[in-house]
What does this fold into?
Amino acid sequence: MMNRRDFSAQLAAAAALGAAAPAALAQGGPVEGTHYVRLSQPVNTSAPAGKLDLIEFFSYGCPACFAMEPFLEEWLKKLPADVAFRRVPVGFNANFEAMQRVYYGLESMGKVEALHKRIFTAVHVQRLRLDREADMVSFLNANGVDGAQWAKATKEFHVVTKIAQAKRLGDAYKIDGVPTFGVHGRFFTGTGLAGDHQRALAVTDFLLQRVRKPT
It folds into this structure.
């Protein structure tokens, strides 16, 4: 789990929490305040009527988000029809802010799904610096996408607006680390809370069911 403050210290703290979380989770299901957090102030959702709003807060620059991807990819194949899933990139630092522009520029071109895994691999396996515009343009050109068009898109009003909206949404959810899942404006959980990637998704399932049938 990557945090907006001191990454190394926070990762160590998350690891310590993660070591204790699986045993607690196994003892009787997810526990509020341990495996997930209930928001004191609910967040307005943008899901279509009759749908549950599910957000993955992430960044292409986050190693834990990269590690989450194969688990999330399989989990999404079984996502119930009443759940509207979306990704929201966070901007904890300058690198993450640059990756927000990467994401929303590609989204405006309809190219996110085609390049999502490639970008993660480029950053975390090939160690490419895609937070720099010139390098991203070169990467896109090499992958069959017009890099100049992407660079232009990142400066357009709708993309700048999306980035501002992402910041407000992250603040409303009180997101302090990624990967984190925001569930219908009411709860959030993530690897640092649940203990590992698979447990984070299991807790997310639990929270979706809780929203469907509040107790």
The beta strands are 2-3, 37-38, 52-58, 83-89, 177-178, 180-183, 187-190.
